[in-house]
Amino acid sequence: EGRETRLRVVLRVRPLTCTETRRGDQQVVHSLGDGAVHVSAARHDATFGFSAVFDAGASQEAVFEGSGMRQLVELAIDGFSCTVFAFGQTGSGKTYTLMGPLAQSDTQPASPALLGLMQRSFTCLLEQSRSRGSDLALSASYLEIYNEQIRDLLSPGPPGALPLRWSKSRGFYVENQLRVEFESLEAIVSLLLQGSRRRRTSAHALNRHSSRSHALLTIHVRGRAVSAHPAAGKGWGLRAQRGGAKSPMAGACPSKQGTLCFVDLAGSERVKETGSSGELSVEANSINRSLLALGHCISLLAKPRGKRTHIPYRDSKLTRLLARSLGGSGITLMVACISPSSRCLSETLSTLHYASRARRVTTRP
Ligand code: ADP
Ligand code: MG
Question: Class for domain 7-100+115-198+214-225+261-363, per CATH?
């Protein structure tokens, strides 16, 4: 607590899709083991290092266990603000990693082996909450940022834009955002599905909308101060905070309030502005704006603390909402997603550079 800790950045390389295989795309990304990945193509030859690399053969479970996601859940229970964000071009596997193929089809439930980081985290959260014997109050909020407007994905009414405010005690927060309490896995999974459906049905073309909006699902964990799990904090070099019975404040302990936020970012590919008009160009501009702002903040944050200049969080709604996760008191896991295909080479290299830079960013949880 209070010590500087780095963002944890892991890489997931999805398998070649059937279409890519059929048309004979070359595989240009190879995992070297030990967190290293090699990109080799005609004029490119580069190696990148991450906390972990998951290649095409990695199961959803392996990603959950190997990324540090389990520890992040434990840290959220201990009162930290935890964030995991998936980043990469459209079709690189962000939604698959977070939610599994379930997000693609509403009618057929996905096989348990394919469930993504979100459902696995919910299970872990509910299990931990039961096994610690602490009564945690769990609630969820779900919003998207589309064309620089914040929309509540859980609110049943017509989607209106919600205001984003700042206060000294809370930092940036969304006003009037709906928070729904839940106690079971079924309940939270159903909220996730409802929200994701809302995100999709409002689109003219299904995939286009989801690759143009950022979705943030936040689980709020509120509990009485109980002693922390000894394993919490492993992997970030943090020692779990102890409170509860041993604390001199026992009995009068303020309740711990942690959060666990899952961010499915819009596709990072450069939106071609030529030829797009009207609505499309508004979309293009706002995505470019928020992802550019995010990239800009990450570059500045990656500099040593002493050499940092002002961080322009206010440049976009996305960076305002992620300010704490990136430069404040949050604990953050970034899952960079890439395709191994030769056709995606330039986007892949750009994701790898972006992700490498993010590894130098530190926060003070
Ligand atoms: P994104 O959200 O980044 O646009 P998706 O998660 O929708 O990308 O993935 C694009 C396609 O690739 C989907 O059909 C998805 O099922 C498939 N896919 C992605 N990652 C994997 C993986 N690790 N294993 C198998 N299929 C995957
Ligand atoms: Mg997606």
Answer: alpha beta
